[in-house]
Amino acid sequence: MTDAWVYLLRCADGSLYCGWTVDVPRRLLRHRSGRGSRYTASRLPVELALALPMPDRRTARREEARIKRLDRTAKLALVSAQVVSASAAASGSTRPGSRSDPAITSSGAKSRVRRPLFIEK
Q: Which position has the higher pLDDT, 84 or 99?
């Protein structure tokens, strides 16, 4: 069971906002209404770019902090990897753990990237 989520929002100005929550749909509604954060309130509308399931709140806060330290290019790559991963899983073309699985690094080790539950475009 997923107790928490880390999410990335794409704002109207093209910037990315990272946060964590226990209820993604409710949090997204708060952001869209302008009450989610000062940052997103001034950059409406926002759309969900990525939602990563986390086993607990502590892990979610740590993952949020890790993602916030990434540069924009790395954040966009994270979003792209999850979109490719989700679409490949839906088509059944990528077996988890295979060399073409985006969660496998070039060294063959599993990365810490989590699979999203859903992605809105």
A: 84
